[in-house]
Amino acid sequence: MNFILGFYTGIVNGLREVWAHKFRSFLSMIGIILGVAALVAMVGVVQGMIQNMRIYFENAGGITRIFVEDMEPPVEQQPFAHLSPGRTYNDALAIGAGSTFIETVAPQLNIGWRRIQYGREREHAPLRGVGPERLSTMNQGIDEGRWFGDLDMEQASLVTVLGGHVVRDLFEEGESPVGQKVKIQGKMFTIVGTLEYLGTDEDRRRNPYYWQNRVVYIPLTTAMKRFNGDEKINELNIFIQDVSVMQDAIAQVENILLQTHRGIRDFQVRTMEEQLAEFKKLERSFTLALGGVAGISLLVGGLGIMNVMLAVINERIREIGVRKAVGARGYDIFIQFVAEAVVISVLGGIIGMIVSVGLVHLLKSVVTSDEFRIVLSPDAMVAGFFFSVTIGVAAGVYPALKAASLNVIDALRYE
Amino acid sequence: MAVFELQDVHKTYKMGSETVRALDGVGLAIEPGDFAAILGPSGSGKSTLMHVLGFMDRPSSGQIWFEGKEVSRISRDRQAWYRANRIGFVFQTFNLLPRLSVVDNVLLPVSYSREKMPDKRERAMSALERVGMAHRADHVPNQLSGGERQRVSIARALINKPSIILADEPTGALDSKNVEKILALFEELVDEGQTFVMVTHDNEVAAHTRRIVRMRDGQIEEDLRR
Ligand SMILES: Nc1ncnc2c1ncn2[C@@H]1O[C@H](COP(=O)(O)OP(=O)(O)OP(=O)(O)O)[C@@H](O)[C@H]1O
Ligand SMILES: [Mg+2]
Question: Which residue, of A17, A176, A264, A325, is most buried by count of CB atoms within 10 Å of its CB?
Answer without folding.
Answer: A325
